[in-house]
Design brief:
Structural class: alpha+beta
Strand content: 25-35%
Largest sheet: 4 strands, antiparallel
Order of helices and strands: HEEHEEHHEHEEE
Distance between the termini: 88 Å
Number of strands: 8
Number of domains: 3
CATH topology of the largest domain: Alpha-Beta Plaits
Helix content: 25-40%
Number of helices: 5
CATH class of the largest domain: Alpha Beta
Shape: elongated
CATH superfamily of the largest domain: Protein of unknown function (DUF541), domain 2
Length: 250
Amino acid sequence: MSGDDMQPANTTTRALTEPDALRWFGSAAILAAGLMAGGYLLGNGLLRAKDAERAVTVRGLAERDVTADLATWTISYSASSTSLAEAQDKVRRDTASIEAFFKELGFPADALQPTGANVTSFTNDGITTFTVRQRLALRTTDIKRAQKAVARQFDLVGRGVFLEEGSGMAYTFTKLNDIKPEMVAAATRDARAAAQQFAKDSDSAVGKIRDATQGYFEIEARDGDAGGWGSADSPYKKVRVVTTVSFTLD
């Protein structure tokens, strides 16, 4: 084999041109910047998520004693007789007695209004009995006078008026909208005080409100069981509201 046949195989190594090098370094820089930005955003997002978890949800209570400003009394009475005319006459006399009763107590005539009347009959052994029923309603904002009327209601019985079951005074507080803003603010302060105690125990500080929910306003009898018998026949009420508030913790 000649010396010319001993020549090494031809290998070619091409150096990067300047434009190719610039493109390569540019791509690498963009990739590195993207990784850095992604890592920052991911870390910042985790930090925000961690901060969002630092919150406390508490309830705040506000109560206020109020006096009713409206009294309504539905008076139902009736008379029975085998003569329809006699039953009607008896109801007319009872109506006059009731009107006189309230007039003596100082109520104006228009405070008492008729709200309904009906006649029923029942036949037994061929004898028909008629019952005439009448309803009157007292409506007044004079609470003290209304209480006096209730205290003397048995005077009507003494005058021969048969008061049916369900005849009673009901007292209502109608000015809830006037005290709502103050009570909501008081309930929120109460909630913040509870949150501050929690924060103190956990070595934190209470921040701003994240969200809040206002509960229903409840008006109950001030004394006795809520919602039980007598809740409407007392002019002394208790207004109550509970708010649920979430605070951030710093």
